[in-house]
Amino acid sequence: MSASRILVVTGGFPVRSETFIRDHVTGLLDAGADVTVLALHDGDGSAWDEDELRLGLSGRVRRARIDAPLRHRLVRMPARFVAHASCALGPAWRMVTPSQGWRGPSGVLLAAASALGAAGVPHQFDRIHAEFGPSGVVAAKLRRAGFIAGPLSCAFYGYDATRAIMQSGPGLYRELFEDADLVLPNSEFLAQKLRQAGAPTSKVIVHRLGVRTDRFVPAVRPAPQPGPWRATAIGRFVPKKGFATLLRALARAGEAAPELTLIGDGPMSGELRALAASLGLQRSVRFSGWLGREDVLAHLASTDALIAPSETAEDGDIEGMPVVVMEAMASGVPIIGTDHSGIPEIVRDGVNGVIVPERDSAGLARAMLRLSDPGLRRACGAQSRAIAVSELDHAMLMRRMIGLLFRQPVAS
Question: Model-level pTM?
């Protein structure tokens, strides 16, 4: 695939919580592809890592800022339209026509097109790959307008195959499903949701996220010491993460309860801190805030277990496959998870961890009791690492992804 031109269409970029998208882009660059990233929104200010700097990724990002206030897009529309019409009137008109829905007359498509530039319309790529369904919708509309050209694929990761469809209806992805030759959900659970929404079965192929297992070297854990064992939970403080249920489980677990570190932050921060205080957990729960990537790696290497108590939020928001679960597995850590979305596909009950029902604080407390056994933790941790290396290794999955995108034989 050397020198293949690839357009990656994504939402915010770079985003701290979406390291998998960054890893996909750097993996394509390492394979020799000429990659352009069309970022529909700004990122969250997270710094470029060493690999991204080495590959010059920042210079390959084109920012559309389609979430700018409507008045800002409308002010820029005349100049943008003239610039595109001077190169190709047809695509320029198709980007603003009401037939494109609100994305046309509101200037969203013109903003995305202007980020790439008007010269050489249509922009020809060997592959157009969208990360998350809504980005795929924009990519399909730009392609139909004639501004970009090339085979289209789209990866789905969670809310885009669940909550987004519930809120907008299955017609949300009609054009995308018609135009894409590949629909790549990251779990069987999401694959079923997409088929139900109208994705042709022949186009749907499950492709899991991967982790760089070489970066996660399981630490040699010392013999158990007197006192509580240690557990970690990581993620945004939002309902689907299930952290309120986790705190209630911790209060029920009694002497089997671990000391818990909660890494992250978000809208529920105040609520979770108040809940921990009301349950008398001030001494057993530590709120660390967000940590840098290296600090998270160090923490995973020293914790006794990761707890991922994900649950379906009231608005239908659902996880895909939490990256932190895979990172913990690569670190040789046993997992307590829920039977939520794709989690049970990689966390096998009694093998590399314990699976409990969603929103079941009593079940989580019983799982804590099971994993309070150091021998079971060691056995499950070893299996976690083995599954991560054999099934979730980033390099292996990048080779598979490249094979899918370019219809090449997939090397092992």
Answer: 0.88
Omega cis (within 30) before 14: yes
Q: Which amino acid is at 30?
A: D
Between CA 268 and CA 250 the distance in angstroms is: 18
Query: Does 1 score more than 70 pLDDT?
Result: no
Domains and CATH numbers, the chain: 5-210+393-405 (3.40.50.2000), 213-391 (3.40.50.2000)
Give whole-number Cα distances, 53 to 19, 22, 47, 249, in Å.
15, 12, 10, 43
pLDDT tens, 42-54?
998 888 988 899 9
Residue 179 in tokens: 């135009």
CA distance 128 to 154: 8
Buried b / exposed e across 267-300, counting CB within 10 Å, b at 16+? ebbeebbebbeeeebeebbeeeeeeeeeebbebb
Cβ neighbours of residue 289 closer than 8 Å, sequence gap 6 or more:
263, 264, 265
Tens of pLDDT, residue by residue over 294-343, are: 899 899 999 999 999 999 998 888 888 888 999 999 999 999 999 999 99
Q: Which of 38, 125, 46, 114 is nearest to 83 (CA)?
A: 114
Residue whose pair of structure tokens reads 């609520």 in the numeric block: 271
- Amino acid present at 327: E
Where would I find the H helices in 238-356?
243-252, 269-278, 293-302, 323-330, 343-346
| Residues with Cβ within 8 Å of residue 166, at least 6 apart in sequence | 316
Tokens read off for 185: 């959900």
* Residue pair 258/229 in contact by the 8 Å Cβ criterion: yes
Q: Which residues contact 389 (CB under 8 A, 6 or more apart)?
A: 213, 330
The answer for residues whose C-beta is within 8 angstroms of residue 8's C-beta and 6 or more apart is 21, 24, 25, 28, 35, 36, 37, 38, 129, 130, 131
Query: Can the peptide bond before residue 122 be classed as cis, meaning omega within 30 degrees of 0?
Result: yes
Return all residues near 95 (Cβ < 8 A) that are at least 6 apart: 84, 104, 109, 110, 113, 142, 145, 147
